[in-house]
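Can you give me the bound-state structure? Components:
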Amino acid sequence: MDEKHNSKWPWVDALGDYAVVPVHPKERRTLTNQFLVFTGVLACIAALWGGGALGTQLNLTQLIIAAIVGSAIVSVIGALTAYIGGHTGTSTYVNLSRPFGRYGGFLWGLTAAGITCGLGWFAVETWLFGVMIHDLAPNAWWANVGVASIWGGLLMMTTAVVGYKGLSFLSYLTVPLFIVLAGVAFAMGVYQGGGMEKIFSIQPVNPVPLSVAITSVVGLYIAGATITSDVGRFAKKPRDPAIAWVVQVMVIMPYFLVGAGMLTLGMGGTRITEALLLAGAGLGAYAMAIFGQWTTNDNNLYSGALNWVLLVPLSKRTVTIIEGIIGTAIAAYVGFSAGASLQPFINFLVILGKFVPAVGGVLIADFYVYWWYKKVPVHERYKLKIGDKIGEINWVGWVSAILGGILGGWYVPGIAALNSLILGFVFYAIIAIVCDKAGVSLYLGKYTVSEYGLAPSWIVKRYLRGEKQ
Amino acid sequence: MNLENFLHTIFLISGVFAIIGIILGIIVWMKDPYAGFLWLLISVPLMFFAFGGSGRIKMAKDLETKAAIGIQHSWWVLSFGFSGVILFPAPFFVEHGGSSAYVMTAISVLWLLLGIVGVYKPHAETGVSITI
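Here's the bound-state model for the whole set.
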Protein backbone atom coordinates (compact mmCIF):
# COMPACT_ATOMS: atom_id res chain seq x y z
CA MET A 1 0.00 0.00 0.00
CA ASP A 2 1.61 3.27 -1.06
CA GLU A 3 1.57 6.64 0.61
CA LYS A 4 -1.45 7.67 -1.39
CA HIS A 5 -3.54 4.95 0.28
CA ASN A 6 -2.68 5.12 3.96
CA SER A 7 -5.06 5.28 6.85
CA LYS A 8 -3.98 8.67 8.24
CA TRP A 9 -4.54 10.36 4.90
CA PRO A 10 -7.65 8.74 3.44
CA TRP A 11 -7.49 10.23 -0.06
CA VAL A 12 -6.45 8.77 -3.41
CA ASP A 13 -4.65 11.30 -5.61
CA ALA A 14 -5.86 9.98 -8.97
CA LEU A 15 -4.91 13.13 -10.91
CA GLY A 16 -1.53 13.87 -9.33
CA ASP A 17 -0.26 17.04 -7.63
CA TYR A 18 -3.32 16.97 -5.34
CA ALA A 19 -5.52 18.69 -7.92
CA VAL A 20 -8.81 17.45 -6.42
CA VAL A 21 -7.88 16.17 -2.94
CA PRO A 22 -6.23 17.86 0.08
CA VAL A 23 -2.43 18.03 -0.02
CA HIS A 24 -0.73 15.20 1.90
CA PRO A 25 0.70 16.46 5.25
CA LYS A 26 4.15 15.21 4.22
CA GLU A 27 4.09 17.49 1.19
CA ARG A 28 3.32 20.61 3.24
CA ARG A 29 5.98 23.35 3.06
CA THR A 30 7.35 26.08 5.28
CA LEU A 31 6.50 29.76 5.49
CA THR A 32 9.77 30.49 3.63
CA ASN A 33 8.67 28.25 0.75
CA GLN A 34 5.33 30.03 0.52
CA PHE A 35 6.99 33.43 0.57
CA LEU A 36 9.48 32.49 -2.15
CA VAL A 37 6.94 30.86 -4.46
CA PHE A 38 4.52 33.79 -4.15
CA THR A 39 7.36 36.24 -4.76
CA GLY A 40 8.50 34.20 -7.76
CA VAL A 41 5.05 34.58 -9.30
CA LEU A 42 5.07 38.33 -8.61
CA ALA A 43 8.58 39.00 -9.76
CA CYS A 44 8.20 39.99 -13.39
CA ILE A 45 5.20 41.38 -15.20
CA ALA A 46 3.25 42.10 -12.05
CA ALA A 47 5.84 44.32 -10.39
CA LEU A 48 9.12 45.06 -12.13
CA TRP A 49 7.57 45.53 -15.55
CA GLY A 50 4.57 47.34 -14.10
CA GLY A 51 6.81 49.52 -11.93
CA GLY A 52 8.90 50.37 -14.98
CA ALA A 53 5.75 51.49 -16.78
CA LEU A 54 4.62 53.59 -13.79
CA GLY A 55 7.98 55.36 -13.82
CA THR A 56 6.98 56.87 -17.17
CA GLN A 57 3.62 58.07 -15.79
CA LEU A 58 4.21 59.42 -12.27
CA ASN A 59 6.67 61.49 -10.32
CA LEU A 60 8.48 59.75 -7.47
CA THR A 61 6.14 60.85 -4.67
CA GLN A 62 3.07 59.71 -6.62
CA LEU A 63 4.84 56.48 -7.53
CA ILE A 64 5.46 55.66 -3.85
CA ILE A 65 1.84 56.49 -2.91
CA ALA A 66 0.40 54.42 -5.79
CA ALA A 67 2.66 51.47 -4.92
CA ILE A 68 1.69 51.47 -1.23
CA VAL A 69 -2.06 52.03 -1.68
CA GLY A 70 -2.39 49.53 -4.55
CA SER A 71 -0.35 46.91 -2.70
CA ALA A 72 -2.43 47.34 0.47
CA ILE A 73 -5.65 46.57 -1.45
CA VAL A 74 -4.14 43.49 -3.12
CA SER A 75 -2.63 42.26 0.14
CA VAL A 76 -5.99 42.18 1.94
CA ILE A 77 -7.75 40.29 -0.87
CA GLY A 78 -4.92 37.79 -1.37
CA ALA A 79 -4.53 37.15 2.37
CA LEU A 80 -8.23 36.26 2.66
CA THR A 81 -8.08 33.71 -0.19
CA ALA A 82 -4.62 32.40 0.78
CA TYR A 83 -5.88 31.59 4.27
CA ILE A 84 -8.65 29.45 2.74
CA GLY A 85 -6.05 27.44 0.78
CA GLY A 86 -3.75 27.02 3.77
CA HIS A 87 -6.64 26.01 6.00
CA THR A 88 -8.24 23.46 3.62
CA GLY A 89 -5.14 22.23 1.77
CA THR A 90 -7.20 22.15 -1.43
CA SER A 91 -6.84 23.84 -4.81
CA THR A 92 -8.74 26.86 -6.11
CA TYR A 93 -11.00 24.52 -8.12
CA VAL A 94 -12.00 22.50 -5.04
CA ASN A 95 -12.57 25.63 -2.95
CA LEU A 96 -14.65 27.24 -5.70
CA SER A 97 -16.91 24.18 -5.74
CA ARG A 98 -18.47 25.46 -2.48
CA PRO A 99 -19.71 28.89 -3.65
CA PHE A 100 -20.30 27.76 -7.26
CA GLY A 101 -21.06 24.05 -6.93
CA ARG A 102 -18.95 21.25 -8.41
CA TYR A 103 -19.75 22.18 -12.03
CA GLY A 104 -19.37 25.85 -11.20
CA GLY A 105 -15.97 25.31 -9.61
CA PHE A 106 -14.95 23.43 -12.72
CA LEU A 107 -16.23 26.07 -15.14
CA TRP A 108 -14.89 29.10 -13.25
CA GLY A 109 -11.60 27.30 -12.59
CA LEU A 110 -11.32 26.59 -16.30
CA THR A 111 -12.20 30.21 -17.14
CA ALA A 112 -9.87 31.80 -14.58
CA ALA A 113 -6.94 29.41 -14.73
CA GLY A 114 -7.34 26.98 -17.66
CA ILE A 115 -8.17 29.40 -20.46
CA THR A 116 -7.04 32.76 -19.10
CA CYS A 117 -3.72 31.74 -17.50
CA GLY A 118 -2.81 28.37 -19.00
CA LEU A 119 -3.45 29.19 -22.65
CA GLY A 120 -4.06 32.91 -22.96
CA TRP A 121 -1.57 34.67 -20.77
CA PHE A 122 1.00 31.95 -21.31
CA ALA A 123 0.96 32.69 -25.06
CA VAL A 124 0.92 36.47 -24.56
CA GLU A 125 3.77 36.45 -22.06
CA THR A 126 5.83 34.03 -24.17
CA TRP A 127 5.45 36.44 -27.07
CA LEU A 128 6.34 39.37 -24.77
CA PHE A 129 9.40 37.40 -23.72
CA GLY A 130 10.42 37.24 -27.39
CA VAL A 131 9.88 40.99 -27.74
CA MET A 132 11.97 41.72 -24.64
CA ILE A 133 14.83 39.51 -25.76
CA HIS A 134 14.70 41.11 -29.22
CA ASP A 135 14.90 44.58 -27.63
CA LEU A 136 18.02 43.52 -25.72
CA ALA A 137 19.85 41.96 -28.69
CA PRO A 138 18.17 43.23 -31.88
CA ASN A 139 20.79 41.83 -34.27
CA ALA A 140 21.15 38.28 -32.92
CA TRP A 141 19.33 35.45 -34.73
CA TRP A 142 18.44 33.77 -31.44
CA ALA A 143 16.80 37.01 -30.31
CA ASN A 144 14.38 37.16 -33.24
CA VAL A 145 10.92 37.52 -31.63
CA GLY A 146 9.72 34.18 -33.06
CA VAL A 147 12.89 32.25 -32.25
CA ALA A 148 13.10 33.67 -28.70
CA SER A 149 9.41 32.85 -28.17
CA ILE A 150 10.14 29.21 -29.02
CA TRP A 151 13.11 28.68 -26.71
CA GLY A 152 11.50 30.85 -24.03
CA GLY A 153 8.26 28.89 -24.18
CA LEU A 154 10.08 25.56 -23.96
CA LEU A 155 12.14 26.84 -21.01
CA MET A 156 8.99 27.88 -19.17
CA MET A 157 7.42 24.47 -19.79
CA THR A 158 10.24 22.58 -18.07
CA THR A 159 9.48 23.70 -14.53
CA ALA A 160 5.71 23.59 -15.05
CA VAL A 161 5.98 19.95 -16.20
CA VAL A 162 7.83 19.02 -12.98
CA GLY A 163 4.96 20.58 -10.97
CA TYR A 164 5.01 22.43 -7.66
CA LYS A 165 8.55 21.24 -6.92
CA GLY A 166 9.73 22.72 -10.21
CA LEU A 167 8.09 26.08 -9.45
CA SER A 168 9.63 26.07 -5.97
CA PHE A 169 13.08 25.23 -7.31
CA LEU A 170 13.09 28.14 -9.75
CA SER A 171 11.71 30.57 -7.17
CA TYR A 172 14.36 29.54 -4.62
CA LEU A 173 17.06 30.22 -7.19
CA THR A 174 15.82 33.51 -8.58
CA VAL A 175 13.83 35.45 -5.97
CA PRO A 176 16.93 36.88 -4.22
CA LEU A 177 18.18 37.85 -7.69
CA PHE A 178 15.02 39.92 -8.25
CA ILE A 179 15.36 41.50 -4.82
CA VAL A 180 18.94 42.48 -5.69
CA LEU A 181 17.95 43.59 -9.21
CA ALA A 182 15.22 45.88 -7.87
CA GLY A 183 17.80 47.41 -5.51
CA VAL A 184 20.26 47.80 -8.38
CA ALA A 185 17.55 49.45 -10.50
CA PHE A 186 16.86 51.82 -7.59
CA ALA A 187 20.56 52.76 -7.21
CA MET A 188 21.09 53.12 -10.96
CA GLY A 189 17.94 55.22 -11.24
CA VAL A 190 19.21 57.64 -8.59
CA TYR A 191 22.63 57.72 -10.30
CA GLN A 192 21.15 58.33 -13.77
CA GLY A 193 18.73 60.90 -12.39
CA GLY A 194 21.56 62.87 -10.75
CA GLY A 195 20.78 62.19 -7.06
CA MET A 196 17.72 61.85 -4.83
CA GLU A 197 16.81 65.55 -4.82
CA LYS A 198 16.82 65.74 -8.59
CA ILE A 199 14.93 62.53 -9.06
CA PHE A 200 12.12 63.80 -6.81
CA SER A 201 11.77 66.79 -9.13
CA ILE A 202 11.71 64.80 -12.42
CA GLN A 203 8.36 64.95 -14.17
CA PRO A 204 7.09 61.83 -15.97
CA VAL A 205 7.02 61.64 -19.78
CA ASN A 206 3.41 60.39 -20.00
CA PRO A 207 1.65 61.69 -16.83
CA VAL A 208 -1.57 60.05 -15.62
CA PRO A 209 -3.80 60.81 -12.56
CA LEU A 210 -2.89 59.02 -9.31
CA SER A 211 -6.21 57.12 -9.27
CA VAL A 212 -5.40 55.60 -12.69
CA ALA A 213 -1.99 54.52 -11.41
CA ILE A 214 -3.51 52.89 -8.29
CA THR A 215 -5.94 51.08 -10.61
CA SER A 216 -2.98 49.79 -12.60
CA VAL A 217 -1.19 48.54 -9.48
CA VAL A 218 -4.31 46.72 -8.25
CA GLY A 219 -5.04 45.37 -11.73
CA LEU A 220 -1.50 44.00 -12.02
CA TYR A 221 -2.04 41.38 -9.38
CA ILE A 222 -5.68 41.08 -8.40
CA ALA A 223 -6.24 38.00 -10.59
CA GLY A 224 -3.26 36.39 -8.85
CA ALA A 225 -4.72 37.38 -5.49
CA THR A 226 -7.89 35.40 -6.19
CA ILE A 227 -6.14 32.09 -7.01
CA THR A 228 -3.64 32.04 -4.12
CA SER A 229 -5.05 28.72 -2.87
CA ASP A 230 -3.11 26.82 -5.55
CA VAL A 231 0.09 27.77 -3.71
CA GLY A 232 -1.33 28.28 -0.20
CA ARG A 233 -2.66 24.69 0.00
CA PHE A 234 0.92 23.47 0.38
CA ALA A 235 1.43 25.41 3.64
CA LYS A 236 2.11 23.63 6.93
CA LYS A 237 0.04 26.11 8.95
CA PRO A 238 -3.19 27.78 7.74
CA ARG A 239 -1.91 31.26 8.53
CA ASP A 240 1.42 30.82 6.70
CA PRO A 241 0.23 31.59 3.15
CA ALA A 242 -1.67 34.66 4.39
CA ILE A 243 1.45 35.93 6.20
CA ALA A 244 3.69 35.12 3.22
CA TRP A 245 1.27 36.88 0.88
CA VAL A 246 0.98 40.05 2.99
CA VAL A 247 4.75 40.30 3.47
CA GLN A 248 5.54 39.83 -0.21
CA VAL A 249 2.79 42.20 -1.37
CA MET A 250 3.28 44.91 1.27
CA VAL A 251 7.10 44.83 1.35
CA ILE A 252 8.41 43.27 -1.85
CA MET A 253 5.80 44.60 -4.29
CA PRO A 254 6.23 48.34 -3.43
CA TYR A 255 10.00 47.78 -3.33
CA PHE A 256 9.91 46.24 -6.85
CA LEU A 257 7.50 48.85 -8.17
CA VAL A 258 9.46 51.81 -6.81
CA GLY A 259 12.87 50.31 -7.69
CA ALA A 260 11.89 49.66 -11.30
CA GLY A 261 10.00 52.96 -11.51
CA MET A 262 13.02 54.91 -10.26
CA LEU A 263 15.16 53.54 -13.06
CA THR A 264 12.72 54.31 -15.87
CA LEU A 265 12.03 57.74 -14.31
CA GLY A 266 15.77 58.44 -14.12
CA MET A 267 16.35 57.17 -17.66
CA GLY A 268 13.48 59.18 -19.14
CA GLY A 269 10.94 56.53 -20.00
CA THR A 270 12.77 53.51 -21.38
CA ARG A 271 11.48 49.98 -20.77
CA ILE A 272 12.89 48.42 -17.58
CA THR A 273 15.00 45.69 -19.22
CA GLU A 274 16.41 48.09 -21.81
CA ALA A 275 17.00 50.70 -19.10
CA LEU A 276 18.98 48.15 -17.07
CA LEU A 277 21.08 47.24 -20.10
CA LEU A 278 21.73 50.88 -21.02
CA ALA A 279 22.63 51.71 -17.40
CA GLY A 280 25.26 48.95 -17.43
CA ALA A 281 23.64 46.02 -15.61
CA GLY A 282 24.95 43.63 -18.30
CA LEU A 283 23.74 40.08 -17.73
CA GLY A 284 21.37 41.41 -15.06
CA ALA A 285 19.11 42.83 -17.80
CA TYR A 286 18.95 39.45 -19.55
CA ALA A 287 18.41 37.67 -16.22
CA MET A 288 15.48 39.95 -15.46
CA ALA A 289 13.90 39.27 -18.86
CA ILE A 290 14.47 35.52 -18.79
CA PHE A 291 13.88 34.57 -15.17
CA GLY A 292 11.23 37.21 -14.55
CA GLN A 293 9.08 35.92 -17.36
CA TRP A 294 9.91 32.29 -16.60
CA THR A 295 8.88 32.36 -12.93
CA THR A 296 5.59 34.04 -13.80
CA ASN A 297 4.68 32.06 -16.88
CA ASP A 298 5.41 28.57 -15.56
CA ASN A 299 2.83 29.32 -12.86
CA ASN A 300 0.31 30.25 -15.57
CA LEU A 301 0.88 26.91 -17.25
CA TYR A 302 0.79 24.98 -13.96
CA SER A 303 -2.49 26.54 -12.79
CA GLY A 304 -3.99 26.02 -16.23
CA ALA A 305 -3.05 22.33 -16.37
CA LEU A 306 -4.54 21.75 -12.90
CA ASN A 307 -7.91 22.64 -14.40
CA TRP A 308 -7.58 21.16 -17.90
CA VAL A 309 -6.91 17.66 -16.52
CA LEU A 310 -10.53 17.55 -15.39
CA LEU A 311 -11.65 17.80 -19.01
CA VAL A 312 -8.96 16.04 -21.04
CA PRO A 313 -8.29 12.30 -20.57
CA LEU A 314 -4.53 12.71 -20.33
CA SER A 315 -2.02 12.94 -17.47
CA LYS A 316 -1.25 16.37 -15.99
CA ARG A 317 2.28 16.21 -17.38
CA THR A 318 1.01 15.54 -20.92
CA VAL A 319 -1.61 18.28 -20.62
CA THR A 320 1.08 20.74 -19.46
CA ILE A 321 3.25 19.87 -22.47
CA ILE A 322 0.36 20.18 -24.95
CA GLU A 323 -0.81 23.44 -23.38
CA GLY A 324 2.77 24.76 -23.47
CA ILE A 325 3.27 23.78 -27.11
CA ILE A 326 0.00 25.46 -28.16
CA GLY A 327 0.89 28.66 -26.28
CA THR A 328 4.44 28.66 -27.64
CA ALA A 329 3.19 28.05 -31.20
CA ILE A 330 0.79 31.00 -30.95
CA ALA A 331 3.57 33.23 -29.60
CA ALA A 332 6.04 32.09 -32.26
CA TYR A 333 3.49 32.54 -35.07
CA VAL A 334 2.86 36.12 -34.00
CA GLY A 335 6.60 36.65 -33.58
CA PHE A 336 7.41 35.36 -37.09
CA SER A 337 4.48 37.06 -38.84
CA ALA A 338 5.21 40.71 -39.45
CA GLY A 339 2.02 42.65 -38.84
CA ALA A 340 0.38 39.93 -36.76
CA SER A 341 -0.86 41.20 -33.43
CA LEU A 342 -1.96 39.59 -30.21
CA GLN A 343 -4.18 42.57 -29.38
CA PRO A 344 -7.58 40.91 -30.15
CA PHE A 345 -6.45 37.93 -28.09
CA ILE A 346 -5.34 40.21 -25.22
CA ASN A 347 -8.71 42.04 -25.38
CA PHE A 348 -10.51 38.70 -24.98
CA LEU A 349 -8.35 37.84 -21.96
CA VAL A 350 -9.01 41.25 -20.43
CA ILE A 351 -12.77 40.58 -20.74
CA LEU A 352 -12.37 37.21 -19.00
CA GLY A 353 -10.13 38.91 -16.45
CA LYS A 354 -12.97 41.21 -15.37
CA PHE A 355 -14.88 38.19 -14.03
CA VAL A 356 -11.96 36.67 -12.11
CA PRO A 357 -12.03 39.23 -9.23
CA ALA A 358 -15.82 38.78 -8.97
CA VAL A 359 -15.22 35.05 -8.52
CA GLY A 360 -12.74 35.91 -5.74
CA GLY A 361 -15.32 38.19 -4.10
CA VAL A 362 -17.91 35.40 -4.11
CA LEU A 363 -15.42 32.95 -2.61
CA ILE A 364 -14.51 35.39 0.19
CA ALA A 365 -18.19 36.15 0.90
CA ASP A 366 -19.09 32.45 1.07
CA PHE A 367 -16.23 31.42 3.35
CA TYR A 368 -16.12 34.43 5.69
CA VAL A 369 -19.73 35.68 5.69
CA TYR A 370 -22.18 32.95 4.65
CA TRP A 371 -20.55 30.11 6.61
CA TRP A 372 -20.17 32.48 9.58
CA TYR A 373 -23.88 33.25 9.27
CA LYS A 374 -24.50 29.47 9.22
CA LYS A 375 -22.52 29.31 12.51
CA VAL A 376 -19.89 26.91 11.16
CA PRO A 377 -16.60 27.39 13.09
CA VAL A 378 -13.68 28.64 10.96
CA HIS A 379 -11.65 25.44 11.42
CA GLU A 380 -14.55 23.37 10.01
CA ARG A 381 -15.32 25.51 6.94
CA TYR A 382 -14.56 23.99 3.49
CA LYS A 383 -12.82 20.95 5.05
CA LEU A 384 -13.17 18.20 2.46
CA LYS A 385 -14.45 14.98 4.03
CA ILE A 386 -15.35 11.64 2.47
CA GLY A 387 -19.13 11.32 2.38
CA ASP A 388 -19.78 15.09 2.40
CA LYS A 389 -22.46 16.39 0.06
CA ILE A 390 -21.51 19.26 -2.23
CA GLY A 391 -23.97 21.03 -4.52
CA GLU A 392 -23.54 20.34 -8.24
CA ILE A 393 -24.46 23.97 -8.93
CA ASN A 394 -24.66 26.88 -6.48
CA TRP A 395 -26.81 29.27 -8.51
CA VAL A 396 -26.27 32.22 -6.13
CA GLY A 397 -22.52 32.11 -6.82
CA TRP A 398 -23.11 32.11 -10.58
CA VAL A 399 -25.57 35.01 -10.47
CA SER A 400 -23.34 37.06 -8.14
CA ALA A 401 -20.16 36.54 -10.18
CA ILE A 402 -21.84 37.34 -13.52
CA LEU A 403 -23.57 40.45 -12.14
CA GLY A 404 -20.43 41.57 -10.29
CA GLY A 405 -18.24 41.05 -13.37
CA ILE A 406 -20.55 42.89 -15.77
CA LEU A 407 -21.48 45.82 -13.49
CA GLY A 408 -18.00 46.19 -11.94
CA GLY A 409 -16.14 45.69 -15.18
CA TRP A 410 -18.15 47.95 -17.47
CA TYR A 411 -20.66 50.15 -15.66
CA VAL A 412 -19.40 51.26 -12.23
CA PRO A 413 -16.67 53.94 -12.34
CA GLY A 414 -13.39 53.41 -10.45
CA ILE A 415 -11.05 50.45 -10.28
CA ALA A 416 -12.77 47.81 -12.48
CA ALA A 417 -11.11 44.80 -10.83
CA LEU A 418 -11.88 46.06 -7.32
CA ASN A 419 -15.46 46.98 -8.28
CA SER A 420 -16.08 43.46 -9.60
CA LEU A 421 -14.65 41.90 -6.47
CA ILE A 422 -16.67 44.08 -4.08
CA LEU A 423 -19.90 43.66 -6.07
CA GLY A 424 -19.43 39.87 -6.29
CA PHE A 425 -18.89 39.83 -2.52
CA VAL A 426 -21.92 42.02 -1.71
CA PHE A 427 -24.32 40.28 -4.11
CA TYR A 428 -23.40 36.83 -2.81
CA ALA A 429 -23.56 37.76 0.87
CA ILE A 430 -26.98 39.40 0.50
CA ILE A 431 -28.63 36.93 -1.89
CA ALA A 432 -27.33 33.83 -0.04
CA ILE A 433 -28.49 35.03 3.37
CA VAL A 434 -31.88 36.24 2.06
CA CYS A 435 -32.43 32.89 0.26
CA ASP A 436 -31.46 30.99 3.38
CA LYS A 437 -33.91 32.98 5.51
CA ALA A 438 -36.62 32.44 2.87
CA GLY A 439 -35.93 28.71 2.83
CA VAL A 440 -34.76 28.74 -0.82
CA SER A 441 -31.92 26.32 -1.48
CA LEU A 442 -28.69 27.71 -2.94
CA TYR A 443 -27.81 24.36 -4.49
CA LEU A 444 -29.06 22.35 -7.45
CA GLY A 445 -28.19 18.64 -7.26
CA LYS A 446 -25.82 16.95 -4.83
CA TYR A 447 -22.45 15.28 -5.26
CA THR A 448 -21.05 12.90 -2.64
CA VAL A 449 -17.34 13.33 -1.98
CA SER A 450 -15.45 10.02 -2.37
CA GLU A 451 -11.89 9.04 -1.48
CA TYR A 452 -10.95 10.45 -4.90
CA GLY A 453 -12.03 13.93 -3.78
CA LEU A 454 -13.79 15.83 -6.55
CA ALA A 455 -12.33 13.73 -9.38
CA PRO A 456 -14.84 13.11 -12.19
CA SER A 457 -15.95 9.48 -12.56
CA TRP A 458 -14.08 8.91 -15.83
CA ILE A 459 -10.81 9.89 -14.12
CA VAL A 460 -11.50 7.44 -11.28
CA LYS A 461 -12.21 4.67 -13.83
CA ARG A 462 -9.00 5.43 -15.73
CA TYR A 463 -7.03 5.45 -12.47
CA LEU A 464 -8.48 2.09 -11.39
CA ARG A 465 -7.71 0.57 -14.82
CA GLY A 466 -4.09 1.77 -14.51
CA GLU A 467 -3.82 0.41 -10.96
CA LYS A 468 -5.03 -3.05 -12.02
CA GLN A 469 -2.46 -3.17 -14.81
CA MET B 1 32.70 14.92 8.91
CA ASN B 2 29.13 14.54 10.14
CA LEU B 3 26.31 16.51 8.56
CA GLU B 4 25.98 19.09 11.34
CA ASN B 5 29.69 19.96 11.34
CA PHE B 6 29.64 20.03 7.56
CA LEU B 7 26.83 22.58 7.53
CA HIS B 8 28.51 24.69 10.24
CA THR B 9 31.67 24.74 8.12
CA ILE B 10 29.78 25.82 5.00
CA PHE B 11 28.01 28.61 6.85
CA LEU B 12 31.21 29.73 8.60
CA ILE B 13 33.10 30.03 5.30
CA SER B 14 30.13 31.80 3.65
CA GLY B 15 29.76 34.17 6.60
CA VAL B 16 33.44 35.07 6.69
CA PHE B 17 33.39 35.88 2.97
CA ALA B 18 30.22 37.89 3.53
CA ILE B 19 32.12 39.99 6.10
CA ILE B 20 34.89 40.49 3.53
CA GLY B 21 32.17 41.54 1.05
CA ILE B 22 30.81 44.07 3.55
CA ILE B 23 34.29 45.55 4.13
CA LEU B 24 34.87 45.81 0.37
CA GLY B 25 31.37 47.25 0.02
CA ILE B 26 32.07 50.00 2.53
CA ILE B 27 35.27 50.88 0.65
CA VAL B 28 33.42 51.03 -2.70
CA TRP B 29 30.51 52.91 -1.08
CA MET B 30 32.86 55.66 0.13
CA LYS B 31 34.04 56.10 -3.45
CA ASP B 32 30.66 55.61 -5.15
CA PRO B 33 27.54 54.81 -3.09
CA TYR B 34 25.49 53.82 -6.15
CA ALA B 35 27.86 50.96 -6.93
CA GLY B 36 28.71 50.09 -3.31
CA PHE B 37 25.02 49.51 -2.73
CA LEU B 38 25.26 46.16 -4.60
CA TRP B 39 28.14 44.91 -2.43
CA LEU B 40 26.08 45.54 0.70
CA LEU B 41 22.79 44.37 -0.82
CA ILE B 42 24.31 40.93 -1.35
CA SER B 43 26.81 40.59 1.51
CA VAL B 44 24.72 41.85 4.46
CA PRO B 45 21.74 39.48 4.05
CA LEU B 46 24.07 36.62 3.14
CA MET B 47 25.99 37.14 6.39
CA PHE B 48 22.76 36.96 8.40
CA PHE B 49 21.56 33.87 6.55
CA ALA B 50 24.93 32.12 6.98
CA PHE B 51 25.43 32.78 10.68
CA GLY B 52 21.69 32.55 11.33
CA GLY B 53 21.65 29.10 9.71
CA SER B 54 24.48 27.94 11.95
CA GLY B 55 22.69 29.23 15.05
CA ARG B 56 19.38 27.60 14.11
CA ILE B 57 21.08 24.27 13.40
CA LYS B 58 22.69 24.32 16.85
CA MET B 59 19.29 24.83 18.47
CA ALA B 60 17.52 22.12 16.43
CA LYS B 61 17.08 18.77 18.17
CA ASP B 62 16.81 16.11 15.47
CA LEU B 63 18.85 15.48 12.33
CA GLU B 64 15.93 15.98 9.94
CA THR B 65 15.22 19.44 11.30
CA LYS B 66 18.92 20.32 11.13
CA ALA B 67 18.99 19.12 7.52
CA ALA B 68 15.86 21.14 6.66
CA ILE B 69 17.34 24.30 8.18
CA GLY B 70 20.64 23.60 6.42
CA ILE B 71 18.85 23.29 3.07
CA GLN B 72 16.81 26.47 3.58
CA HIS B 73 19.80 28.59 4.52
CA SER B 74 22.03 27.01 1.86
CA TRP B 75 19.46 28.10 -0.73
CA TRP B 76 19.92 31.71 0.39
CA VAL B 77 23.70 31.35 0.12
CA LEU B 78 23.32 29.72 -3.30
CA SER B 79 20.89 32.26 -4.71
CA PHE B 80 22.69 35.36 -3.41
CA GLY B 81 25.87 33.83 -4.88
CA PHE B 82 24.01 33.37 -8.16
CA SER B 83 22.94 37.05 -8.07
CA GLY B 84 26.57 38.07 -7.47
CA VAL B 85 27.85 35.96 -10.36
CA ILE B 86 25.39 37.69 -12.68
CA LEU B 87 25.75 41.26 -11.43
CA PHE B 88 29.30 41.91 -10.19
CA PRO B 89 30.91 41.48 -13.66
CA ALA B 90 28.41 43.96 -15.20
CA PRO B 91 29.97 47.03 -16.87
CA PHE B 92 28.52 49.52 -14.35
CA PHE B 93 30.00 47.76 -11.33
CA VAL B 94 33.36 46.98 -12.95
CA GLU B 95 33.67 50.64 -13.97
CA HIS B 96 32.68 52.00 -10.55
CA GLY B 97 34.03 49.26 -8.28
CA GLY B 98 37.30 48.41 -10.08
CA SER B 99 39.11 45.21 -9.10
CA SER B 100 36.79 44.79 -6.11
CA ALA B 101 34.08 43.73 -8.59
CA TYR B 102 36.25 40.85 -9.81
CA VAL B 103 37.05 39.79 -6.24
CA MET B 104 33.32 39.74 -5.48
CA THR B 105 32.63 37.72 -8.63
CA ALA B 106 35.08 35.08 -7.39
CA ILE B 107 33.53 35.13 -3.90
CA SER B 108 30.08 34.79 -5.46
CA VAL B 109 31.19 31.71 -7.39
CA LEU B 110 32.38 30.25 -4.08
CA TRP B 111 29.00 31.06 -2.42
CA LEU B 112 27.22 29.46 -5.35
CA LEU B 113 29.25 26.25 -5.03
CA LEU B 114 28.95 26.12 -1.24
CA GLY B 115 25.22 26.64 -1.56
CA ILE B 116 24.85 23.79 -4.06
CA VAL B 117 26.74 21.41 -1.76
CA GLY B 118 24.79 22.69 1.25
CA VAL B 119 21.49 21.94 -0.47
CA TYR B 120 22.51 18.59 -1.91
CA LYS B 121 24.31 16.85 0.99
CA PRO B 122 21.56 17.14 3.66
CA HIS B 123 19.03 16.04 1.03
CA ALA B 124 21.13 13.03 0.02
CA GLU B 125 21.79 11.99 3.64
CA THR B 126 18.36 12.50 5.18
CA GLY B 127 15.93 12.54 2.25
CA VAL B 128 14.57 15.98 3.22
CA SER B 129 13.13 17.70 0.13
CA ILE B 130 15.44 20.22 -1.56
CA THR B 131 12.51 22.62 -1.82
CA ILE B 132 11.40 22.29 1.81
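A couple of observations. Confidence is low (pLDDT under 50) at residues 1-5 of chain A. The interface with chain B takes residues 29-30, 32-33, 165, 168-169, 172-177, 180-181, 183-184, 186-188, 190-191, 279-284, 287 of chain A (CB under 8 Å).
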